[in-house]
């Protein structure tokens, strides 16, 4: 595929006018989903030098599976670290416009952005969403996240497509919205519900401890 040197903005609309996903393309458009087993993507870091001290991972960074990572919102201090991952794609679950510095970093490193704008809600009551092929939950935590079914389905398609790997999933703090998407991925991987919730709560508590 021939790489397009100019960033293109694509918009996918739900029910005509509602925006579901915004992408910045630096590679050719994906036309189908590849469900083949993931390829191993080892993280390669150069030999120890003084520059290694500048390799700062984003908040709440963790590996989800081969070629899949999660974190809070990266900033410029994390760019050197992200380069060591050899990312092809980033899935952002925040609705706000992507920062200019981050966009330039993606363009200069040939990384494609998939942005699914999911609002975060604080102090909202517990709510259980209906079954949609994979189980989608809302958790009794703050901020409460109400995830639109079609949006989470499209985000999952991006995450499981191995041609987008290595991929980084992030929201603001890398806990609730990211945790919900990872939880849905775990159900596709046939995890039992207790294990899914355990992972979600563990990542949430780690995030809380890191804030202190």
Task: Provide an overview of this structure.
There is one protein chain. With 212 residues, this protein is of the alpha/beta class. It is built from 5 helices and 9 strands, in the order E-E-E-E-H-E-H-E-E-E-H-E-H-H. It has a domain at 54-119 and 146-211: Protein-Tyrosine Phosphatase, Chain A, CATH 3.90.190.10. The chain has a 7-stranded mixed sheet with strand order 1-2-6-5-9-4-3, sandwiched between helices. A two-stranded antiparallel sheet has the order 7-8. Strand 5 (89-92), helix 2 (100-108) and strand 6 form a beta-alpha-beta unit. The protein starts with 7 loop residues before the first strand and ends with a helix. Residues 1-17, 27-33, 122-133, 135-145 and 207-212 have low confidence and may be disordered. One of its GO terms (molecular function) is inositol-1,5-bisdiphosphate-2,3,4,6-tetrakisphosphate 5-diphosphatase activity. Belongs to the protein-tyrosine phosphatase family. Atypical dual-specificity phosphatase Siw14-like subfamily.
């Amino acid at each position: 595929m021939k790489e397009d040197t100019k960033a293109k903005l694509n918009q996918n609309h739900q029910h005509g006018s509602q925006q579901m996903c915004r992408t910045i393309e630096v590679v050719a458009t994906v036309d189908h989903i590849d469900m083949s087993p993931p390829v191993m993507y080892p993280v390669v870091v150069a030999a120890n030098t003084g520059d290694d001290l500048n390799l700062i991972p984003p908040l709440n960074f963790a590996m989800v599976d081969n070629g899949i990572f999660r974190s809070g919102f990266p900033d410029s201090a994390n760019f050197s670290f992200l380069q060591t991952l050899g990312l092809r794609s980033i899935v952002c679950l925040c609705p706000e416009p992507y920062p200019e510095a981050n966009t330039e970093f993606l363009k200069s490193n040939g990384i494609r952005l998939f942005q699914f704008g999911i609002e975060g809600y604080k102090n909202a009551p517990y709510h259980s969403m209906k079954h949609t092929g994979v189980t989608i939950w809302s958790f009794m935590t703050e901020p409460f996240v109400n995830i639109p079914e079609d949006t989470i389905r499209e985000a999952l398609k991006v995450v499981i497509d191995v041609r987008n790997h290595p991929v980084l999933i992030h929201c603001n703090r890398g806990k609730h919205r990211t945790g919900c998407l990872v939880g849905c991925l775990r159900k596709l991987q046939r995890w039992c519900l207790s294990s899914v919730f355990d992972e979600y709560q563990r990542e949430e508590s780690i995030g809380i401890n890191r804030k202190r």
